[in-house]
Amino acid sequence: MDISVCIVSWNTRELLCNCIDSILKMTSGVSYEVIVVDNNSSDGSAEMVKQQFPQCKLIESKNNNGFAKGNNLGLRVATGKYILYLNPDTVLITNALYGMFHFMEANTNIGAVGCKLLNQDGSIQFTCARTFPTLFNQFCYFMMLNRLFPKSCSTIEMSYWDHRDSREIDCLSGACILARKDIINKLQGFDEKFFMYAEDVELCYRIKREGWKLYYLASEEIYHLEGASSKKQSQKYFSAIAMRESNFQFFVKHYGKVSAQVYKLIIFIGSVFRLLVILLSSLNLIRRTNKPHREVVINKYMNLALWSLGRKKNKRFF
To answer: CA 246, 252, 258 angle in degrees (round to 5)?
Structure first.
């Protein structure tokens, strides 16, 4: 078996169906298996896989174990030389499995490869090829310095680069990572302390620390409907808080506790700064955007500021 495709799904029935269907339609020239790990979905996802795609390996979890643990469950039954971590909200539009497999076979110093991720309108998601979070690039983002100095004060997404050419990079998106399975086995998969967000960053960091290179392959393309599972959360600011919490864990693990606390300080200062910018430009914002959008932005940064001070439960303020 060349590739084991591992898909972790939570209440994404229709998206999962489209994802698997695109794999079957677009893939040729490589042997593969599809492993679906269902994180206790309540929308009939597991039943759909059984009925429409009986050739898939299905693991039904009794709990929502998150992305990291779900993928580790898939790793245990994977038989391929490579493992492809693929989100259920993706659709293949090229023979991406073959393209990435062929590239890895020809470049034995590459530990993992990803491809171009596209929004529904065809624009590129810059998260498909990025750098690791640092105190500096996080500060640049929250203080909006990247808008003034896009290259020297870049964020993790490196927006100064159009992502249209292939190159060696630091970090791939967990929506699509093809890795050598022997490396993943050695690293014991994803760190399960990361429930959602930054688990892909953390895995890429450890792959590079082992001396392997990571590569972004712009020639292969996949549609990615970003955040399909997290959008189902009833808490409106779940994603913003969960992302920073995972980044905080990453800083603790790889940069140390002091850096992690400085990261929280940057979140607080940056959130207050963003709120001041909104306040000072409120008259312009009234003309350019509607009131509900302003409320969403203000609530987001109010919650991030509170989180940085140790408050766990986020809320609406108006």
So the answer is: 130
Read off the pLDDT of residues 273-284 as tens digits, 9 standing for 90 and up. Answer: 999 988 887 766
CA distance 62 to 253: 29
- Residue with tokens 């312009």, as numbered in its chain: 284
Q: Are strands 129-130 and 171-172 parallel, antiparallel or unpaired?
A: antiparallel
Residue 228 clears pLDDT 60, i.e. is over it: no
Using pLDDT thresholds of 50, 70 and 90, give the confidence band for residue 317: low
Question: To the nearest 5 percent, what fractions of the chain are helix, strand and coil?
Answer: 45, 20, 35
Domain residue spans of the chain: 3-228, 231-308
Q: Which CATH class is domain 3-228?
A: alpha beta
Give the Å distances, CA to CA, from 161 to 175, 215, 233: 20, 15, 32
Closest CA to 166 of 212, 129, 216, 205: 216
| Residues contacting residue 26 through CB under 8 Å, at least 6 positions apart | 92, 93, 94, 95, 96, 97
By three-state DSSP, how is residue 89 classified? coil
How far apart, in whole angstroms, are the C-alpha atoms of residue 318 and residue 303? 12
Burial class (CB in 10 A: 0-12, 13-18, 19+), 304: buried
Dihedral sign, CA of 154, 200, 202, 230? positive
Q: Is the dihedral of CA 3, 247, 159, 119 positive or negative?
A: positive
More confident residue, 162 or 318: 162
Q: What's this model's pTM, rounded to 2 decimal places? A: 0.90
Q: At what angle do helices 291-308 and 257-280 cross, to 10 degrees?
A: 150
**Integer Cα distance of 311 and 314 in angstroms:** 8
What three-state secondary structure class fits 114? strand
Measured CA to CA, the distance from residue 75 to residue 35 in angstroms comes to 9
- Give the whole-angstrom CA distance, residue 166 versus residue 143: 30
